[in-house]
Design a protein that fits this description.
mainly alpha; single chain; rod-shaped; about 120 residues
Length: about 120
């Protein structure tokens, strides 16, 4: 097997820059979302730890409402983290497909379209 020369690899490297930047951006977004999820979990723990001590029904209902909101928020954050992770994974698969298509000298239009579509939609 003969490896492509540097002049043949330059267009592939130029094409791979976009998904690499996408992975970097997704990583920063994941960092932010996981921090926000941690704050939601911390707040829910604080509310839940004081819940048995609440005697008044009005305050109990307020805490239950806050816990319900936090539960929904945590669910949305978990979904967003999952979709962002899937997007980063599909961008990584796109980069791998680009380099293998250059190595095997195969047209990469189908593989790059197949891999980049989930990265955009997730």
């Amino acid at each position: 097997m003969q490896f492509p020369s540097l002049s043949q690899m330059i267009p592939i490297l130029q094409t791979a820059i976009g998904p690499v930047i996408l992975i970097s951006g997704i990583g920063l977004l994941l960092l932010t979302m996981t921090n926000r999820l941690g704050r939601v979990i911390d707040r829910a723990r604080v509310l839940a730890s004081g819940f048995p001590d609440i005697k008044e029904d009005g305050n109990r209902e307020k805490v239950e409402a806050q816990l319900s909101i936090l539960w929904k928020r945590a669910g949305l954050l978990r979904l967003a983290i999952t979709l962002a992770s899937m997007s980063a994974l599909s961008a990584a698969i796109l980069i791998i497909a680009l380099f293998f298509s250059a190595l095997w000298k195969v047209d990469s239009a189908c593989s790059s379209g197949f891999c980049s579509s989930p990265a955009c939609f997730a």
